[in-house]
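TASK: fixed-backbone design
INPUT:
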């Protein structure tokens, strides 16, 4: 094979017109071969080369198909009516119990029982928002590493189509990895909120009967108790997602900020494509088939982004733990065993940690979750459930990473901060009332 990168031979070199590994032999008009190669590539990935569903950097059509195939292959029966009723009743009862424990109103308008395939279908739009920023960096990195600068000068006229092809292939490859990760996650989740993100459509709360059954296996806890405990967790998440108006943007924005600082280790792929024959799309696909290594940048900005993201996710999970365990303790005989099962699942690297590591380059540390739960408990003890939940009234009141290290200090200082915010809100309300009265005074009856 020629030593020139990408399998090209220079015009005039030995075998330039005859070399079967040179897709541009002779440079004299055999562009049809290049076009045929692009068509073969498009056919190879199902005619959806450039981003699939939605036109983004990641081929989400491919990702969805791979994920659904992964769950169907291992068995994903449709939901029967009895399972649907059980889940809907559990979610409704969970919301009734939570009404007594938190001032945050119920958030579930449509309780649902999902199969694993339905979970993939329903949560994919949010996964696209979470993963597209890092996918864009992957595709750009691969296009830069495998494109322009590596192509001989005499081939630069064809660099654009070539780099475009490589980026399309990169999008398909990343889509394949995302599909595998989501397929694995769908086999383990119990509801829509396992990873702490608002994945379900607005107003929807969902449990997966197959996931609930798998969670309870070996616990020796009645199925109804397992279902009710997990319904409490799902319903508690949905209260925050529905009634803390800034929380969705805060969480997804934190993921995006972190993704901006991710770099992609391409050393393995660069080595695999040295001297590759571009007239063989199957060989290119095989060379690009390995997993990419995501590396966070060690900069102050990236560390701050990581702290914000970890803290935000931990605060959501910590609040849910605190509220749910308080409600379950007096109603479910095996509540402590179920809470321990959730903690053990996290500590051994549950689906949230693995999926974030695969798709975003992040592992959510269980230690942060425990500290967040301790902070919410301390707030409830000092100020009651209403005072605890008032922290969600404004993003400026939300604890930071340092506050998780010293919950008691936050509780002592939080009262003053909350009082200050209440004063500002009261002043704003008074100003609005004064303006309304002035406007009424300027009406026909108030003018002389």
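OUTPUT:
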């Amino acid at each position: 094979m020629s030593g020139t990168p990408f399998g090209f031979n220079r015009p005039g070199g030995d075998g330039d017109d005859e070399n079967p590994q040179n897709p541009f032999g002779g440079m004299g008009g055999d562009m049809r071969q290049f076009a045929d190669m692009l068509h073969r590539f498009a056919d190879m990935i199902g005619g959806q080369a450039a981003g699939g569903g939605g036109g983004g950097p990641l081929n989400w059509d491919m990702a969805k198909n791979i994920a659904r195939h992964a769950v169907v292959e291992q068995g994903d029966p449709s939901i029967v009516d009895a399972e649907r009723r059980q889940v809907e009743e559990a979610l409704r009862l969970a919301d009734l119990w939570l009404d007594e424990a938190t001032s945050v109103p119920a958030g579930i308008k449509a309780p649902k029982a999902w199969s694993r395939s339905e979970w993939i279908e329903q949560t994919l739009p949010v996964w696209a928002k979470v993963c597209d920023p890092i996918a864009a960096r992957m595709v750009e990195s691969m296009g830069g590493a495998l494109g322009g600068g590596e192509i001989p000068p005499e081939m630069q006229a064809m660099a654009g189509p070539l780099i475009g092809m490589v980026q399309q292939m990169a999008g398909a490859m990343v889509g394949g990895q995302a599909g595998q990760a989501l397929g694995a996650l769908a086999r383990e989740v119990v509801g829509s909120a396992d990873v702490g993100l608002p994945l379900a459509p607005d107003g929807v709360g969902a449990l997966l009967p197959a996931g609930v059954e798998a969670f309870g296996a070996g616990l020796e806890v009645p199925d109804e108790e397992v279902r009710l405990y997990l319904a409490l967790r799902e319903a508690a998440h949905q209260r925050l997602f529905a009634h803390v108006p800034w929380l969705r943007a805060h969480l997804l924005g934190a993921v995006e900020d972190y993704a901006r600082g991710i770099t992609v280790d391409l050393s393995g792929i660069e080595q695999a494509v040295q001297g590759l024959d571009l007239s063989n799309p199957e060989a290119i696909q095989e060379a690009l088939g390995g997993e990419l290594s995501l590396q966070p940048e060690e900069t102050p900005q990236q560390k701050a982004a990581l702290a914000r993201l970890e803290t935000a996710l931990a605060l959501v999970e910590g609040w849910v733990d605190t509220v749910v365990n308080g409600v379950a303790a007096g109603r479910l005989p095996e509540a402590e065993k179920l809470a321990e099962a959730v903690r053990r699942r996290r500590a051994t690297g549950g689906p949230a940690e693995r999926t974030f590591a695969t798709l975003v380059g992040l592992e959510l540390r269980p230690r942060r979750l425990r500290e967040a739960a301790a902070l919410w408990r301390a707030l409830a003890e000092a100020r009651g459930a209403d005072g605890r939940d008032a922290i969600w009234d404004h993003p400026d009141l939300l604890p930071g990473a340092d506050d998780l290290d010293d919950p008691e200090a936050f509780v002592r200082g939080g009262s003053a901060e909350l009082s200050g915010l209440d004063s500002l809100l009261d002043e704003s309300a008074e100003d609005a009332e004064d303006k309304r009265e002035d406007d009424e005074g300027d009406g026909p009856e108030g003018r002389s």
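COMMENT: The first strand starts at residue 110 and ends at 113.
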